[in-house]
Structures are given as structure tokens and as C-alpha cells.
Amino acid sequence: MVSLLRLTMDVAEYRLDGNADAVEFCPYDSFHDILAAATYTLQEGDEPCRIGGISVFSVMQGSGLKLLQHIETTGIFDIKWNPCLGHKLLAEANSGGFLRLHELNCNHGTAEDTGEVLKEVVKEDVSSSMCLCLDWNLSSSSIAVGLSDGSVSIVTISEAQLEITQHWQAHDFEVWASAFDVHHHQLLYTGADDCKFSCWDLRECTSAMIFQNSKAHKMGVCCIQKNPMNTNLLLTGSYDESLRLWDMRATSRPILEQQISLGGGVWKFKHHPSIPGLVLAACMHNGFAIVRIKEDGMELLENYQKHESLAYGADWHHGKVQLKGETGAGSLVATCSFYDRQLRLWLPNVL
């Protein structure tokens, strides 16, 4: 394999038509070149409104991004592809209180291609509050939605229909993080502006939590993810600028933690799809960071500072990347920033 260190770091950039807050590479085989970017823009005035959209791109072999489709919506806070290999769906949590599912056109690039890469197939009016975050369970049968009033909804997917099967008041303020445990499917983790990190067993009454920690985070909890390759480790990110590592073998007293300050609020992070312990983090006022995670600590490997606004969206490419004749495995990164509306592709120097 040819080393990617010889490649130029910056690959492509694109200015979106709204404030950029989420990017997601398609995880499905044969569709790794598809990239979705979401926007949220508050239009002020006598009658303020929140507008947004999803822009769908192809990552071109060689260099660059090709816009394939733009879908206008209300303002979007979060998007995620479903993890199951069955129906290929992108879920959207938006400011209108809706959860929407868009299906990927599996004929993309063939003679049967209709021209629509994504097509809305179903939506659910979850709440009069805003839908701020979402996460799929591993079987893609349910989606957890965090809401601006501090509540959480579990939306079940059955025969192309959405149904709210559980709803409870989980936090005192906005829920910015909801994450299923990838090893214990009945567990859901949530985090919010009340600085609390909580765990719920969805087999039980949802008003009775398994645990809640309200002391570790000094500001709101923005993101939570279980380590997909280690059943014991979990990460949380917070406005207080720290990425925290938790050992979940101590769930009755979840305070076994290591932390690293990333110099900005840790809004989102993503585990590398194939390299254990490698994490990409969006650090709001301090660009994007790549961190190596070990059971005994964390190490900052790289900081990317080419964006000029709030660092919000970040994701790893899921397949092999071929750029300018050289090939690497899953090392391409997509990032986006809010007010400057920038979407950028780049290659980390550390890989």
C-alpha cells in the first residue's frame, strides 16, 4: 500500500447554501462515494423561520466533489445512515419536530437511475419541540430521538411506518446526545445541556434509569459513543472542551474516567471504521482533532484548522480511497463548519 503521507492534505472544498452542521459518508458497499451534508439556518425577521437542506455529493475519483442532489427541508440538526444492510436509509432530525427517512436509490449510476439519489419515504411528527439528535439501534428497527424540551422518544420502524413506542422526560434541558449501546442493544445513553450523562434500559420502565452522572461534565454533554471494538469503553464529549473516556464496567458508579482537553467544545466525534482507537472530533471553536484512544489514556495526534467557523460535522470515509493514483484504506475525512458554510475533504497527516 502506498503511504498517504505523500499526498496533499486538502482534497476538495464546497460552499453549501446554508449553515453546515452535519456530514455523513455512506457506509454501504458500492456506495462509499456518496456523501450527505445537512444545514440549519435561522432566518430572522418579523416571522423567524428555520430552513435547511440535505446536499448529496459524489466523491470523485481523482479529486473534488460533485453535487448530485439538493433537498430543501426545515432546519436540520442531525443525520445518520442506518447501520443495517437491508433498506438503505438516511434519517433526519429537524427543527420542525419531525423524523424523516430518505431511501438511497440503489440504481444510482446505472441505466435505471431516476436521478434522485435520495427519496423521502416516511416521516413522523415526533414532537412540537425540535428534534436535536438521533441514533439507530444496530438492527435498524428503532431510532432514538433527543428533543429540545429535554425528552427522548423511541421511534420504531415497521413495514415502512414509524411509530413512537416510548417517550419520557430524560433531562432538564436540551438533549444533544442519544446513543444506543452497540454491544447491549437494550441500553440507551443520553446527554444534555443539564450536564448529565444518563443510561436507560429500554426493556424496563423508561422513567427508571440505570445510572446518571451529573458531576463529571462541567457543561452540557454534546455527544456519546460506545467504542465499537471494545465492549468496556465509552466516550463523551462536552461544551467544557473535554473528551472523556469511561470504563463501563463501573456503571454503578460511572466515574472512572480519563480526559483530554481539545481546546473547544467537543460537539461530535466518530470512531474510525477500521482502525481501533482512532477518533475524529469536531471541536467547535478549535477546528477538528484526531485522537488516539487507549485504556490507559488519550493522545492528540493532529489538529485541522482550515475551517473559519464553528466546527460541527465530521466523518470518516468507509472504504478505500483513490486520489491522484494512490490508494488508502478509510483515511479520507469530511468536515463542515457552520457560519462559513464550508464542506471540506482532507487527508490526515498521521495516517
Q: Features of this protein?
A:
single chain; 351 residues; mainly beta; Methylamine Dehydrogenase, Chain H
Short précis:
Helices cover 0% and strands 54% of the residues. It has no helices and 30 strands.
Can you walk through the features of this model?
With 351 residues, the chain is mainly β. The chain has one domain (8-346): Methylamine Dehydrogenase, Chain H, CATH 2.130.10.10. Helix content is 0%, strand content 54%. The protein has strands at 10-15, 20-25, 34-43, 49-59, 65-74, 76-81, 89-94, 98-104, 118-125, 131-136, 142-147, 151-158, 161-169, 175-180, 187-192, 197-201, 211-213, 221-226, 233-238, 242-247, 257-261, 268-271, 278-282, 288-294, 297-304, 311-316, 320-323, 326-329, 333-337, 342-346. The strands form eight sheets. Strands 1-30-29-26 form a four-stranded antiparallel β-sheet, with no helix packed on it. Mean pLDDT is 89; it is low at 1-8 and 325-330.
Describe the secondary-structure layout.
Elements: E1 10-15, E2 20-25, E3 34-43, E4 49-59, E5 65-74, E6 76-81, E7 89-94, E8 98-104, E9 118-125, E10 131-136, E11 142-147, E12 151-158, E13 161-169, E14 175-180, E15 187-192, E16 197-201, E17 211-213, E18 221-226, E19 233-238, E20 242-247, E21 257-261, E22 268-271, E23 278-282, E24 288-294, E25 297-304, E26 311-316, E27 320-323, E28 326-329, E29 333-337, E30 342-346
Antiparallel strand pairs: 1-30, 2-3, 3-4, 4-5, 6-7, 7-8, 8-9, 10-11, 11-12, 12-13, 14-15, 15-16, 16-17, 18-19, 19-20, 20-21, 22-23, 23-24, 24-25, 26-29, 27-28, 29-30
